[in-house]
Specification:
- The protein has three domains: 84 residues; 76 residues, Immunoglobulin-like, CATH 2.60.40; 79 residues, Immunoglobulin-like.
- Helix content is 1%, strand content 48%.
- The relative contact order is 0.12.
Length: 273
């Protein structure tokens, strides 16, 4: 500060003691893009590109290269908000703050393939069984599950009927491709005595170890959920007395299907306790 006037020679000026703030300048990001992804059960997002705008002169400030963010929702959708976690680096970062850009991206359904089991059949006049299937490509994430049931082309005459996807669904986060198989209705003529193909499954309810006894030699045991999803498949050397550890299966009702060495299929139900 200075003084003016005709008498300034008669005076000296003492400068006042003052203070003020220099606040950080706000930088913005242009050109950043949040990438679309296939459903994976998480909200993690990847952000690519981006240029800082607002740097003073040639100060050493740059946008960090490894850039991540979070989707507002982990579920499938279009134009989902993505919350960036972009950072700046360089020797002059103390002079700046960063405004995160507004971004959106899509989460698309996860493809899975479901295949109807071949060899499913019944005798004419019987009720349809629960149609069984296997996930043959892809897998469900976390605690997601398949609901609904397979169906088939209508008809009760002897012949083959294609199995249909019916009401089977894994929810909107998955896209199902379905591979069909034929369901066969055969004639009752020549059916064997029921006593010869009966199996004994115990204990029922069962906790961990399931015992299966059969008058016929068994070459395969399959366990399905109530809607037909294959959960366990064991192959045996024509056994007639089998102990099966099913401790990994959750509580609930399940379908047990035994295949004999003559390719007869014997089905019953158990309760896992």
């Amino acid at each position: 500060m200075t003084i003016t006037g005709t008498a300034i020679a008669n005076y000296t000026l003492t400068q006042p003691t003052l203070s003020a703030n220099i606040t950080a300048k706000t930088l913005t990001v242009t050109g950043a893009v949040a990438q679309n992804k296939v459903y994976d059960g998480s909200t993690s997002a990847t952000i690519v590109g981006g240029t800082l705008s607002g740097i003073v002169g040639s100060e050493d400030v740059n946008l960090a290269t490894a850039t991540t963010g979070s989707f507002a929702s982990s579920d499938v959708g279009l134009g989902i908000n993505v919350i960036p976690s972009m950072t700046i680096a360089g020797t002059a970062i103390g002079n700046y703050t960063l405004t995160q850009p507004s971004l959106t991206a899509n989460i698309t359904p996860l493809p899975i393939q479901i295949t109807a089991n071949s060899g499913q059949s019944k005798k004419i006049g019987e009720q349809d069984p629960v149609f069984t299937y296997l996930i043959t490509n892809g897998s469900l994430i976390g605690e997601n599950f398949i609901s609904g049931a397979l169906s088939r082309v209508a008809g009760e005459s002897v012949g083959k009927y294609p199995i249909l996807i019916g009401t089977l669904t894994a929810g909107s986060n998955y896209s199902i491709s379905f591979i069909s198989a034929d369901f066969e209705i055969s004639n009752n003529i020549g059916i064997e005595n029921a006593d010869l193909i009966m199996i004994k499954v115990y204990p029922n309810p069962v906790v961990d170890i399931l015992t299966i006894q059969s008058a016929k030699s068994i070459k395969e045991i399959l366990i399905y959920s109530n809607n037909g999803q294959e959960l366990l498949h064991k192959v045996f050397n024509n056994a007639s007395n089998i102990s099966l550890n099913i401790s990994s299966i959750q509580k609930g009702y399940y379908i047990i299907r035994a295949v004999t060495k003559e390719n007869q299929i014997i089905t019953t139900k158990i309760l896992k306790d």
